[in-house]
Amino acid sequence: MKKTILILAVTLMLTSALFSGEIRGLIRNTTTTNGNLMIAAVGGTELDLMGMPSLRVPYPDYPYEYALEDSSIGFLTPFFVIAYQYSFLPMPVSGAPFGAYPDPVIPLGDITNDINIVLWSDGDIGGRIFYEGSFDHVRIDVFDGFSGFLGDPELESSHHIGGNRYFLGHLPSGLKQLRAYDDINRNRRFDEGEPFGWYTMSIVGFEIPFEYCICSGPNSAEGMDITIDFFDIDEQKALTDNIIVSTYPNPSASTTELSYTLPSGQYDLTVTDIQGRRLSRTPISGTGTMDIGADLPKGTYLYRISGEAGVKMGKIILTR
Prior knowledge:
The relative contact order is 0.12. The protein has 1 helix and 26 strands. It is elongated, with a radius of gyration of 23 Å. The N and C termini lie far apart (54 Å). The chain has 3 domains: 19-119, Immunoglobulin-like (Sandwich), CATH 2.60.40; 122-227, Sandwich (Immunoglobulin-like); 235-318, Macroglobulin (MG2) domain (Immunoglobulin-like), CATH 2.60.40.1930. Strand 20 and strand 21 form a beta hairpin. By secondary structure, the chain is mainly beta. Strands 10, 11, 13, 14 and 17 form a 5-stranded antiparallel β-sheet that branches.
C-alpha cells in the first residue's frame, strides 16, 4: 500500500513538472468593433502582461476557434482566461471589446476544451455587502484594473449604495477592482480612517486570492460580495489629542519606529497601502513601540490607531 502511494505521488510530481497544457475554445464578438485579438491566461494574484501565456491574432473572423498552448499552463494550476481587442500596442483598455471565461480554469489533462468567451463593450456587477455598521452612506468605488498594468489602478466611478445589496449596470467592460466603504464624512470620496473593504475572490482549494472581478456582459459579475471591516468610531472623535503617536525616521530607508501612548482601553494598529488595502492589524494598549516596514517594499503606507478614545492616522514613507 505504501509503495503504491509513493509511486502515485512521484508520478503526480513528474506530471506537474513536465506538463505543457493547451486551452481551447471559441471567441464570439457581440460588438461592431473588430481589431487585433489577444487571448491570455491570467494566473496568481498579479496582472503581469509580459509573463502571461498569451496568443495574438490579427483581425480574426468571428466566431474564432483558438488554441492557447504554453509550458506554464500546468496541471492543477488555476487560470482565468480573458480575451480583448486592441489597436496597436497589445494593451487592454477599459470599455474595449473584452470577455472572460466566468470560472477559474484548472487543467486536468493535456488539453482543456470548451473554454468559450464572448466579447462585450460593457457589463454589470452586483453582489452583497457585509457590514456591522449603518448602510446609509455606504459607497462603492470602481477601479479600472487594466490601468494597473502601468501603475496603480485608476478610479473609474463611484456609486452610493445605501444598502446591503448592490447592482452597477452598463459599466465599461474589463477587469475591475471594487472598494466598498462607509462615507462617514459625507463627501462622496474615501478618506483615511473610514471603514472599508476590497472585493477578493478565493478559489476553492487554492490559497490564491484574486483581487479583480470580471465585468463583461449582462449580469456578468453577480456574487461580487464585499466585507467592510467595522470598527466602533465616534464621528466627532475622528482625531483626538488623547492618542499620542510619533514615527522616526520617517521617511526611512529601512524601518520606521512607531511610538504610541494611549488612554486606557484596547486599540488596534492597522497598516494599509496607499490604496487602502489592509496589510496588518495588531492589538495594542498603553505605551509601546513597533517597527514597521521590515517586510514592505518601497512606497507610502498609512497607519491607523483606533479604539475607545478615537482614531489617529498618519503616513509612513519607505524610500529603500
